Each structure stands twice: as C-alpha cells, then as structure tokens.
Model the fold of this input.
Amino acid sequence: MIYKACLFDLDGVLVDTAIYHFQAWKNLGKKFNYELTTEQNEQLKGVSRVESLNKILDWANYSATQEEKSNWLIEKNEEYLRLISNMNRSEILPGVEEFLNQIKNQGFKIALGSASKNAEIILDKTGLMPWFDLIIDGNTVSKSKPDPEVFLKGAEGLAMKPSECIVFEDAQAGVEAAKAGNMKAIGIGDRETLYLADKVIPNFIGIKANELLLF
Done:
C-alpha cells in the first residue's frame, strides 16, 4: 500500500498542552468540591470539551443544570486560553519539526485532526501552521473520538482514501478512531496504553520517516 497523507492529533503529539487542560479542569472542579486526578485527566485526552465535563461530573457524582454546564464550559475555555496565551515555538515537542520536514519533503499531505477548538491558535503561536495543508478540529466536527469523523473529514479534505492515510495519536480514543476509519495508526507514547496502534514510538526524536511509515 502506498501511503500519501499523515494526519496528526495536536495535544500530546505535536505540542504538550495537556498540562494546561488539566489545570483548567482542576480549577473548574473546585466549584463542586472535586479534585481531578492525573489518571482521570489521561481519560480526557482526545475527548471533546462537552464530553470531558460530563465525565468529570460523573466522577464527582454531581448533577449539574444545563445552565451550569454551559457557563462552566465557557469558563474552562477562557481559563485554558489564558494559560496558552504565552505559548511559543519552545513548546513544540522534541523531534516534531524535523519529522514534519521529512514527510513534507517526501511529498506527504499533512492534516491536523484534533478535538480542540483552539487548534489554530496553538498552531499559530507555536509556528507550526505552515506545515499543514488542512485543519480539521472541534469547530468542524460534531462527533468525538473514538468516532472516526475527524480523520475521515481529514482524508476527504485532502482528497485521499482513508486507506492512504496514517494517523499519529497519543490517546487510545484517537487510535480507535483511526482504526475505525480504516487508517493505519502510529501511537506516540507507550505500547501498554496504545496497544491497538499498528506501531508505537515514545516520541519523534531521531525518527526516520522513510522507515517508520513502512507497513
């Protein structure tokens, strides 16, 4: 099979904004006396803001009104935007720029497939935007991973078949979405967590694209 496109998740793959999400959710949890754990935060990776809030409320066994939920979602996003407002190129994860250069030079199309509604802001602040041919984010999809919608829209926007695409993900929900969309999945992290991925690498440091993208 000849692969022609690479689709990347954002948080934890290209940049590490998980700490900012974690802090914003923890601050919000104080409103109903709940302390979010790092283990629970792992389960929020790749999940939409609405679903994340619902998960936290379930863990806290707290019944919120729709008005409370709406207000809290706005508050969480405002807090997150404040936290990421000073992001810069230094927050790109190690090896990412070198890897993007490799695949761009090899003729791959590159798309972002992220649940984040702030993806373009982050790509702008970190200087990553020029590498991307297409941005599919939380503003353009209605279903969260593990539904494959975000990646299928990415393939369609790049005029590629799903089977011609390789997805890079750090979350199990994202790997499941890639596989559900009939795409190869490369996990960024550890094999124990990302056991459904076709390949797993710890990070992009020293990675040779022409070797990694052989299946």
Summary: The chain has a mean pLDDT of 94. The chain has two domains: 5-16+89-212, 18-84. Strands lie at 5-8, 109-113, 134-136, 165-169, 184-188, 199-201.
